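re the bet — no i am not wrong, look at it urself. input seq straight from the record:
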Amino acid sequence: MTSRARPPRSAFTLIELLVVISIISLLIALLLPALSSARQTSIGHVCLANLRTLGQGLTMYSTDHRDQLVPGRLPRVDNENWRALVYGGWKYRPTFLTMMGTNVGIQPFDEPIANRFDLDRFGQRGERQDYASKVYVCPAVSDWTDERNGSYGYNYQFLGNSRLSDPSDISSFKNWPVSVTRIRDTSRTVAVADCMGTAASFAPDQRWPYENNAEDGRRYGNEGFNLDPPRIDRARGEAAKFPDRRSAADPRHLGRIATLWVDTHADFQTTKSLGYQLNDDGSFAWEGNNALWSGSGRDVPWTPDYGL
């Protein structure tokens, strides 16, 4: 009997295997940042889509209310007022987002609550409910669902500051109602934008993470529904937590800010293009340029005697 010798089998050497692994690791290292950037870009465009949808509600609100712009948030008078009928029922002190979204048929809460201290089925107070629809929340910070500590802020100082100058006079609104016809250039006046809340008053390394229902000034999102313009008069003006803490726009989309303008178009801006200035430590200064905020094109801070 004869036997045939088997040909030797080819195999990777250890060096070849290490080379292949190194190449794969290098490719992964090169691709991951690109994939992350693409994902963040996609998230940013979803955010813009949210603002465009809500922007339709801004226009519809004005149409239904004799040309008036929506208020930032109805003021606190007592434990039931001010309340308003929104999509889903009566709501205690609804924010601008709730009222805008109601006009486009997007229910903001599973169970709107009309009393300040009553609880919904999730245990949230009527004054601090969580948004139920994703449209009300920037997808880059999807856990910022608290209506007070929200991800989108309103140019309330110039467009609808419904805080009361005199608590005993329930009609002494600081700057509301504001008519759309008073806005000189609606395409160049900020309405809504990504907001970081009063954390803007602190250096980045001194800001604390977001926390639902919190009221810590250092936390991201605190008083987020109030978006302060770049320039604030610290003696006679207004701010989210006047006079020591301000809010500001948040460049959370790869350094860009999703911005809705009064004419309801939406785009990306930067802190600089919106007029903000930063201090040396990275905190937001109280000085800046309000030309894109005032509604008149003028670089002026809001004060009680302001007029378009």
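see?? The chain has a mean pLDDT of 93. told u. also Residues 119 and 125 are 5 Å apart (CA to CA). so pay up
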